[in-house]
Amino acid sequence: MTDDKQLEVGMSDGKLVISIGIDLLLFAIGHQEQFANTLDACGCQITNAEQLAKAIVEELEREQEDGTTVVHEMLDNAAMSALENGADCFIDVAKSKKVNQNDRPTKV
After folding, report:
1. CA separation for the pair 26, 39 (Å, rounded)
2. DSSP secondary-structure letter at 107?
3. What are the tens digits of pLDDT across the range 73-103?
4. Which residues fall within 8 angstroms of residue 105, CB to CB, at 6 or more apart?
């Protein structure tokens, strides 16, 4: 059975959901130039898509010394891009009204 489900990024039940079929993941990774070149240079090949997917999950969950993961960094970068690209969810407080200290949001 193949699982070539396309990459999907969306929201469901109050959650951000990112999914991709394992076979498509294997195809995409195998065709990423730097990875393909590294495989060629070491004489390696991918032999098991399921094991590769598990290894990728482990790497996505691997914490750095400060507790962050590459997933945290990806989400931070996406949020910064949304801000820089003018997403409608942000408001320029200074332009919308004068804000006194009591109106400022507090960190949770």
Report:
1. 13
2. P
3. 999 999 999 999 999 998 887 777 654 555 5
4. none
By three-state DSSP, how is residue 85 classified?
coil
Reading the block at residue 24, the tokens are 């498509």
Residue 107 pLDDT class (50, 70, 90 cuts):
very low
8 Å CB contact between 69 and 62: yes
Please, what is the angle between helix 70-84 and helix 49-61, to 10°?
70
Domain assignment of residue 70, yes or no: yes
Please give the sequence-ordered ranges of beta strands (E in DSSP) within the chain, or none if there are none. Answer: 8-12, 15-19
Which 3 state secondary structure label does DSSP give 15? strand
Residue 49 lies in a domain: yes
Cα separation, 15 vs 17, whole angstroms: 6
Domain membership of residue 84 (yes or no) is: yes
* 16 belongs to a structural domain: yes
Which of these, 70, 44, 48, lies nearest to 57 by C-alpha position?
A: 70
Q: What is the pTM of this model?
A: 0.71
Domain that holds residue 72: 8-103
